[in-house]
Amino acid sequence: MSQQQVYADAGFGQKVPRGIRPAIVVVDFSYGFTDTQYPTAADMSAEIAATRRLTETARAAGFPVIYTTIAYQPWEVATLPWLRKATGMAALTVGSRLVEIDATTGIRAEDPVIVKHGASAFHGTNLAGLLVGARVDTVIVTGATTSGCVRATVVDAVQSGFNVLVPRDCCADRATAPHEANLYDMEQKYADVTDADDIFSWMTSLAT
């Protein structure tokens, strides 16, 4: 029996219903992840460009665009268990360039920036409140990394009651294997994994 058949027989991989009020959550396209002078980063220029096309479309249609970044206070660096496991993340400190959103994303002054301290954009933040307040029914998750903060955000988004879409060409990781494995798993359990062209067409149709 094929892997796909095993998942299908178990009832996974169903299609996600799409609403009429989407938002884009751009996860951690900060310099600490996107500027390869830093050891925590990788080349994400293609994924940033694909995401920017969607964020510009969303803004033009009046849909929310929300960015996230990880930023730690010095005392957190010394105490958080995650930073003992992933020590490179300790460089993402408040006030440093590493936590600034990469300007090539096209971020605007009016775009909310959620500062988080863990993998999920929902954990310990007011993201769910912002989305509910904006009457959002469908969350499009892009950003970095696919196997880490993107995945955690996707899981929490669906657990918070939102339909979730993940354009694969708008998500970046440091290696191909975890990127593909996590896209597959998200597709089976939590979200529809699609691409930027599909999301662009759908948002454009909502705006007409």
UniProtKB/TrEMBL annotation:
InterPro entries: Isochorismatase-like_dom, Isochorismatase-like_hydrls, Isochorismatase-like_sf. One of its GO terms (molecular function) is hydrolase activity. It comes from the Bacteria. Keywords: Hydrolase. Pfam families: Isochorismatase. The keyword Protein biosynthesis does not apply. It comes from Mameliella alba. The keyword Cell inner membrane does not apply. This is Isochorismatase family hydrolase.
